[in-house]
Amino acid sequence: MAAFSATHCPFSYSYSASINGGQKQRFAFSSFSSSSSSLRLSAPAKAKVFLHQSPRDSHQTAVLVQDGVVVSEVTHKEIETPKEKLKDDLLSFTSTQELDVKAGFDGNENESTVSITVVGASGDLAKKKIFPALFALYYEDCLPKHFTIYGYARSKMTDAELRNMVSKTLTCRIDKRENCSEKMDQFLKRCFYHSGQYDSEENFSQLDKKLKKQEGGRVSNRLFYLSIPPNIFTEAVKCASLSASSGNGWTRVIVEKPFGRDSESSAVLTKALKQYLAEDQIFRIDHYLGKELVENLSVLRFANLIFEPLWSRRYIRNVQLIFSEDFGTEGRGGYFDNYGIIRDIMQNHLLQILALFAMETPVSLDAEDIRNEKVKVLRSMRPLRLEDVVVGQYKSHSRGGVTYPSYTDDKTVPKDSLTPTFAAAALFIDNARWDGVPFLMKAGKALHNRGAEIRVQFRHVPGNLYNRNFGTDLDRATNELVIRVQPDEAIFLKINNKVPGLGMRLDRSNLNLHYAARYSKEIPDAYERLLLDAIEGERRLFIRSDELDAAWALFTPVLAELEEKKIIPESYPYGSRGPVGAHYLAARYNVRWGDLDIEQ
């Protein structure tokens, strides 16, 4: 069997597959767009390929089946003659066990459509991220030929009011501004609104009727994006599953973090979701996994010979994962106070990056192979101890004639709140590759700058001939690989270099890949990549339930201890580099935070 999925981004592609009897067929397709009825075939998702012999001639048809639905049919003749049009027939089956593949279907029932429902459409996330990302995909011809977008929320709103709200947040690519207003108008015509309660099966049934009307008898594939508070996830999933699922295509649900507050609540949420959805229908989104530099991690490591041999305890002294924001909670204090910086950033964003960074080479780029390796990393990690954690909370500070508020000055935050707005932690992976290497995490709000980066500090050169040129500060001679995730994406390697001249003077220089200088194309937003992957059924960048369990198992004990002992967070001024305790934590493991280097 071979694996295929359907997608619509302009692209050219060829693929060899063994179909049912081991016979090799080569699939080669040219570039297509959403304005065409043609499809290209790629190979991420778990589909099956069946070989069908026509009784009237010798032509063979490769039938690609995914989630119980025939994705496409390609005849042997069409494969060998790319100029001929590929069939775009999408046939539905209620069972994946018995497939009766027949030819000769016509009309809308042979085509498919994707209906995307944004649940919580009136919220900030939907307005600022989800709708703009969907428009960007449409602008790039990455959405299917037939698609509909529905906003669903409790607010009373007309289709026209939704379109007006959405239009204010849409922008076109810097490098592609032609026909921008025309594209916006076309996109907005595909956007509709339905008002309803999140726990009302009747309201979702009404939505279902509207979706069917837009789908026009085609095979309906439905994607629900839950941009709502986690306490109503289960009810919304129940209603969508029972009253608005597709009857003849796939149904998928994107769930936003947080996925619980600890191991217990996460397990309860997962169990509740699985009452109505299968695991492969649940797409737990962590938008950091969709960022360009995070996705490039595996390419940097596995596609470059110079890095993989160095990726171990033998050459790496420590790894730092740093996240900082230069603003406070600013109105989100009520939500944030219930979770804190460890749950909000460390347990998901930074830990997912760590797992990708530290995993062993996967068997393939298949989603399950990659996620299997990430789970192995998480399960190999040493339980986090309280003494390896530093927490802080920002306080009011005046600078340049401006007074910045403290965390507890936020009206939505209790005055006696002990919720940390900063945390630093030292984690260890107890396996052969990483034994003894500290992985230092640091995340905070109201710090001196905004950024997210991965810093890999290599070991000192043994018997370095140039020690005298660096004096006693051997850290000055340490090579460092820096992957700047945001903003101003870049990868640079710090090396020691001779300063031109007659003397022997050394300095530290950067070999720099600055994305804005190297690539003229604007980097897509993380939500664009993740939404496209969800539509295509590609699960590589989404979190599996056992990944989630392993991640919570690491942090739940120390979170419980922080709350039970009522640990008072160390204060740090708004706009500073964070609490002093973070430096002592790093020094305990003979590490200096890389982002504090005066060169930066």
TrEMBL record:
What region holds the Glucose-6-phosphate dehydrogenase C-terminal domain? 299-593
Its annotated pathway? Carbohydrate degradation; pentose phosphate pathway; D-ribulose 5-phosphate from D-glucose 6-phosphate (oxidative stage): step 1/3
Please report the stretch or stretches of sequence annotated as the Glucose-6-phosphate dehydrogenase NAD-binding domain: 118-296
Does tRNA-binding count among this protein's keywords? no
Keywords, A to Z? Carbohydrate metabolism, Glucose metabolism, NADP, Oxidoreductase
Q: Which NCBIfam families match?
A: zwf
Instruction: Output the superkingdom of the source species.
Output: Eukaryota
This molecule's function is given as: Catalyzes the rate-limiting step of the oxidative pentose-phosphate pathway, which represents a route for the dissimilation of carbohydrates besides glycolysis. The main function of this enzyme is to provide reducing power (NADPH) and pentose phosphates for fatty acid and nucleic acid synthesis which are involved in membrane synthesis and cell division.
User: Could you tell me what reaction this enzyme catalyses?
Assistant: D-glucose 6-phosphate + NADP(+) = 6-phospho-D-glucono-1,5-lactone + NADPH + H(+)
Looking up PANTHER family in the UniProt record yields: GLUCOSE-6-PHOSPHATE 1-DEHYDROGENASE 2, CHLOROPLASTIC, GLUCOSE-6-PHOSPHATE 1-DEHYDROGENASE G6PD
Q: Which organism is it from?
A: Hibiscus sabdariffa
Q: What is its EC number?
A: 1.1.1.49
Presence of keyword Oxidoreductase:
yes
Q: Which family does it belong to?
A: Belongs to the glucose-6-phosphate dehydrogenase family.
Q: What is this protein called?
A: Glucose-6-phosphate 1-dehydrogenase
